[in-house]
Each structure stands twice: as C-alpha cells, then as structure tokens.
Amino acid sequence: MASLLPSAAAIRASSVDTEQRIPYNPHRTYPKKPETVTAPLASVSSRSLGKSPTKLTISELLRRDISENTHVELNGLYLGYETWLPTPPKVERPKSVLNPASLAYIGDCVYELYARRQFLFPPLSLDEYNDRVMAVVRCEAQEAMLQNLVSENFLSQEERDLLRWGKNSGSAKTRSKKRVGAAVYSRATSLETLVGYLYLTDKRRLDEIMQKIGFSTDMSSTPTPSTVELGNTET
C-alpha cells in the first residue's frame, strides 16, 4: 500500500503538469462579434411611425378615422356588448365611505380607460397609442376639458360641489404637480374625483360627460370634443 502512494501522486502531478495552459496576457484582445444582419422591416405607414404633431387640438386628437378595412360593427354596441366598463363595487354613499383621493384614484383609471378605448381603432403602433393617450390624460388636457364643462354649464350643482370637494383635498407631491403647478393639478384631480364618483353611482351620467368632453361612449356615437390646443405631447 505504501508503494502505491508515491506513484499515484506522481501520476496526479504529471496529469496536471501536462495540461495546456494559456499564458496570462493583461492586454489580451477578443475577436469582434460579426455584425448581425437584420431583415428589412415591412413597410409601415407614416401615421404609425410618426409622432403626434406638436400642436393639436383635443378635437383633432379625439377624431376617430375608422377605415373601411377595419371590420367593426357600428350597431350601438361595443364589440358586441351593451356595457364595456367593469362593474363597479356597490357603494351606497361614496362620499361618506371614500375620501376624494380614493375617488380620484379610481377616476384616473376609468378616465384613462375611456382614452385607451377611444384610440383602439384603427390599429396603431404602441408608440402612437401611448402618445395619443398621454396627450389627453395629462393634467393640462384634463384641466382644459373641465374648464369647458364648467363654462358651458353642463354640470349640475351637485357635480360642481364634487369638483370643489376634490379640488380642495390634499395631495402628495408628484412630478406632474411640480411641472404644471398646484392650481392646474388640483383642477385635474377634481375632474378625476367626479369621474370616480359617477363611475360608482351613475354610469349613464358619466357617459354623458365623457361624450361631452369628446370620448366615444359607443361605436356609433359622434363625439363633440372641445377645441383646446394641446402643446407638446411629451410628458
């Protein structure tokens, strides 16, 4: 047994010593990877690739151009359904159960859902979808839409009280508030509060207000949007 140990050690040492080693070179360079050749992109319309114009009105942005090639049945329904908004939770007295921030929280979601639905047809690129939606959900656009609703006396006294309630609620510091100022941000938040309240209590009235703003509430409705200029659509 003792005679085997030296030979085993010798074999192990010789197997290590005979391995080919790469000399260390601190300035070693690696071959460049071959450039990948990509297939040419399919032709895409300039409408899908192009950015939104720097100056748009809400009416121009909300105008829907459904081409003949888009198979959509204009029968007063939306994709075959009479209602398209998710069923709201049953809250008998939202003002006593929820605070303005809670209503603005759900109202912001519902408002953006109207905007996303508005631009669903015709099909666009993701960038174009995002540009259009962001242009109408930013604080400046919401504040401008609210000003038109108020100036045209479209809102009831109760709805005006809800706007005042939502406007006077405290809000956290956000980049949007810092960008547009506290006054514009508060008025935009008050509109979201109203949208959230009507979503929980009266979706028919919510549809009327959103249609007045310019959003389509069914596939056959003709929106009557305000003509407020939107500046640069970047957020």
How would you characterize the overall build of this protein?
- The structure is a single chain.
- With about 240 residues, the chain is mainly α.
- The protein has helices spanning about 5-15, 45-50, 60, 95, 100-120, 125-135, 140-150, 155-165, 175-180, 180-200, 205-215; strands spanning about 55, 230.
- It has a two-stranded antiparallel ribbon with strand order 1-2.
- Residues about 35-55, about 70-75 and about 220-235 have low confidence and may be disordered.
What's the structural blueprint in terms of helices and strands?
Elements: H1 4-17, H2 46-49, E1 56-57, H3 58-62, H4 94-97, H5 100-118, H6 126-137, H7 139-151, H8 157-167, H9 175-180, H10 182-201, H11 203-213, E2 229-230
Antiparallel strand pairs: 1-2
